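Table 4 source record.
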Amino acid sequence: TLSLSRPVTKRARPSCGWHAAGPDRSGVLKIQTLDIPGVRRWTEISGATSFRDRNLMITDLVIGPEISLRKFNLDVSKLSEAELGVNLDGSIFDAPITLSAQVSDLNASNRLNLKAESSALSLQRIWAYFNLNVPVTGTLDRLVLAFQGEPAKPSSWIGDADVLFSGAAYDRHALGDITLRLDLADKRAKATVVSRLDQDNRIDIEANSTLPETLQDFDKVSASGHVQVFTPDLVALNLPVIGDLSLNTSFRLENRKLATEGVLDSSSLAFSGTELTETHLRLDLSKDLQQQAEAPLFKDLISRIEGEIKAIRLQDYAVESVNIALSSNDANVHLER
């Protein structure tokens, strides 16, 4: 049940419509019941409203104890000039949130100017509130977002994002505290991700990419970057592995062909009855990504692993000083030594 009311004045029209610009129209918004099957049922939604010159303002909008908006503004006063504006300021699950969005060249390029900020937002509370089964959990401690551009034209995108998740986890696997920094400018994107798994273990990722002219051309972009894994204490990560490991990998993507070069180092690794001592391996890989979806993973895959392991112990068997040189091409594997 949705009811809209406003006081009747001498200038008020009996039809009670919000259809044209005119004198200030204030009133009350009330929704007795809003039921979305399988999601949630809301009752007693209310707020104060005003409408002047095709500018709708809703203040003190309360949607239960979890969601309240001090201000929601929908500005269509410049709709004849193909411009639209939306602003909101409030809180969701006790987390402050502000958003400002303006769209120009409406129904054509839909150029967007967007700013948003939030903090202390619990993902678990959101999923539970909307009855969603999402395996990602954690707290959004910081979100600062600014964006300008045409949504359907990535090469026009300009902006930046600063995001911090604490206590992040995926399907109960701890990811720690994750920081994301994204910069968009000059038809390029740069992303930096730092995952602090705990006080000792971390993963750093940096990627640089071109931005295509259309959304359909993202599979044709050129990109490069590196991934660094520094885990001196694997036991702390609740993995079935004991020891330490570091991995430094660079990657390139050009003409839908991916190439990576990596170095893996470990002083000690133990897993499934196997122990490796002083491992140093170089891993090179290239793969053509233009293959058909049903093609096997090793199709157009070329790889090479080379390095040495000072000692290998497999249950009661031990081998000293192992040199490895292994290469593959599609499904063919060649042991060089």
